[in-house]
Amino acid sequence: MEKFEGVIGKTYEESTPWWPEIKQPPAGSPNIVVILLDDTGFAHLGCYGSSIDTPNMDKLAEEGLQFTNFHTTALCSPTRACLLTGRNHHTVGMRAVSNMRSGFPHLRGRVTKHAANIAELLSDEGYGTYCVGKWHLTPMEETSGAGPFDHWPTQSGFDRFYGFLQGETDQFHPELTLDNHHIERPADKENYHLSEDLVENACKFINDSKSIYPEQPFFLYLTFGATHAPHQAPQEFLDKYRGKFDAGWDQIRTEWFTKQKELGVIPEDTVLADRNPGVEEWESLSPNQKSFACRLQEAFAAMLDHTDAQIGNLLKYLDDMGLKENTIVMLLSDNGASQEGGPTGLMDEMKYFNMVPENVDKAVEKLDDIGGPKSHTNYPWGWAQAGNCPMRWYKQTTHGGGVRDPFIIRWPKVIKDKGGKRHQFHHITDVMPSILEILGLEAPKVFNGIEQLEVAGTSFAYLLNSETEPTRKKVQYFEMFGNRAIWSDGWKAVSRHEFRQDYDKEEWELFHLDRDISETNNLSKAEPERLKEMIQMWWEEAEKYGVLPLDDRTLELFRSSTGKGSPHAKRTYIYRHPISHMPAGVAANMGNRSFVIEADIARNKKENGVLLAIGGSNVGLSLFIKDGRLVFDYNIFYDHKVLESEIIVPEGEVKVGVYLEREDPGGEATLLIDGEKAGEMELPFVIRILGSTGMDIGRDSLSPVSEEYNAPFPFEGVINQVVVHLPERGNTLEEAFLTMRSELGME
């Protein structure tokens, strides 16, 4: 109970009132804006050597400081956890993405409450705190309208949230969440794009704050979906880059490498790393491979350029509001350029998660769709390595291509060395302690009654006006899916891991990173004792920060938990209508298996619409009634397999559904009306992961799964409930129905 410091008498005339002081930051405290890009490589910004237009980000560097030796974790959720908490990702339970939970402390799919984040600390000091964009720090099974909400942004220190909880989303038809509930994208915007919407809402949040509490400083955490796949941008930005990369990745990478030297981003004596294994010489590609790869790179460039324009809108807004001078803006990426497009690139990046290679000769038939709403693309390895120039490897690895990233900071009121470079080593865990030092704060030992983990990061505030002081960082380990590395005193030891191989037998390389940023001169044989010491240091750091056990599992950990308390604890899901949109991690797990969908409805002969839809225009499935007939559309990466019932769906109360029987690698779909078969079709392939954008009952609220209707195509009749049942392997349809009816009887 709050202590009252006045005097209580018999009456108020005999009493002395007292009001608790409202905590406010000291006068003149700066606003803080952290802008986080996604899957943007070291070389992708113009000020880091790229030919892609990023004038607003370049201007930030011109007016602030540009770091050239800044490192992340190699993956999105872990980097975000480190950025916000100042602790290492294993320590706080975010070894990999929040879609995964392994049963070990270092991968819980959420950040422990023993590591209060910077938003929580600043909110406690009186700051307004706003999160806008990608979150990806909540277990995906906890992202439905039913919660639990403990690890959503507004329960994690942020006053307001507008964005998406998943790791990616469609930029034209995004999954959107406002504070603690899911919403649909604004219907009044004809040419909608998520990046524009995010910046508009960020400005609204600041307007709300400054209109009512003009003296209150704010912390804005703006995290774009860009440049994570799908690479999507407005048509004028796509048109701008037509033909700009026809010279191919070998020549473009060399040009960017030369530009990096001219800009002073890398030393003059830097050696350009060889092409990564699997990256072909450009001239060896077929005409179709070249055309496809160029269009994919054009879509990436257009998306980055468009994102830069939105950042420009935010910076102009801050300037127009008179906030520029005392606002700290930090801009960075969460990891290196992505390898998830494979050697050829993908028309639909969900093929990567379904382990399906791209048919380039077929994909080129849809070149003009790339970058637009009818594509879900990711570019090939060759362009990803160009984005990580001059280094090797990519996102998910602990070589430079995975962990060395752009970082820019602007604070006009304080930074005098405008346009300066900072070459000292720093890490993503250093952002949070830097903010605390700038504000004169310390990380608490106890927060909200919970004992706190020690902050692992090292403040870089000393570099704001010091160009030459050596880094204060002593050591930093790296680990991602078994890939390991450690940096200390300008040296780096790194071991690239092959899935399921013996860690003790895998090679460690040694680089003098201060003199070899591209990691091309392996000194392991010349300096065996140093390497031995650094390997031992890695194990010591791993023990200290909770890195063990080493775990190289990836896609298999995407499987939903079926433990007690999980929405997937039973094989039968019962959905009552109306119900909010369900993100993919919450939706019935129908990928790569047999299932039954049954909708209990009432309709007249004119009432049609969607009963259940999961996925989007690129991949997924939809069960709906159109022109009185029951229809099942199984969308296999834009290849629609459509089955229509042989009879009209009866009027009145009726049960309609579909049974999909998996017969690896394909299957058979059977339409059902009141338990009777009403049509069958063979399926050549059963989808493993049905997209990333979740499920709807009674409508198709995002990009339409089927081309047979215009979304959202809401069902016009009455939906009593929709049931999804996952039969035991080998069960017949009759056995599946028996089990499903039994489980329904227990409800």
Describe this structure in words.
- With 747 residues, this protein is α+β, with helices and mostly antiparallel strands.
- Helix content is 21%, strand content 22%.
- Strands 1, 2, 3, 4, 5, 6, 7, 8, 9, 10 and 11 form an eleven-stranded mixed β-sheet that branches. Strands 18-28-19-24-25-26 form a six-stranded antiparallel β-sheet, covered by helices on one side.
- β14 and β15 form a beta hairpin.
- The longest helix is centred in the middle third of the chain and has 34 residues.
- Helix fraction bin: 10-25%
Task: Give the termini distance in whole angstroms.
Answer: 43 Å
- Report the biggest beta sheet as strand number plus sense, adding barrel if it closes: 11 strands, mixed
Structural class: alpha+beta
How many β-strand runs? 28
Provide the gyration radius in Å: 27 Å
**DSSP strand (E) fraction?**
15-25%
Mean pLDDT: 95
Topology:
Elements (H helix, E strand, L loop, with lengths): L30 E7 L17 H9 L1 E7 L4 H10 L32 H7 L3 E7 L25 E5 L11 E3 L2 E3 L10 H19 L5 E6 L11 H6 L8 H15 L23 H34 L6 E7 L16 H4 L6 H4 L17 H7 L12 H4 E7 L9 E3 L3 E2 L3 H8 L7 E2 L2 E2 L23 E6 L2 E6 L2 E5 L13 E3 L16 H18 L26 E5 L18 E9 L5 E7 L4 E7 L2 E8 L2 E10 L3 E12 L2 E8 L2 E8 L11 E3 L20 E8 L7 H13 L2
Parallel strand pairs: 1-7, 1-8, 2-10, 2-11, 3-4, 3-7
Antiparallel strand pairs: 2-9, 4-5, 5-6, 8-9, 12-13, 14-15, 15-16, 16-17, 18-28, 19-24, 19-28, 20-21, 20-27, 21-22, 22-23, 24-25, 25-26
Helix pairs in contact: 4-7, 6-10
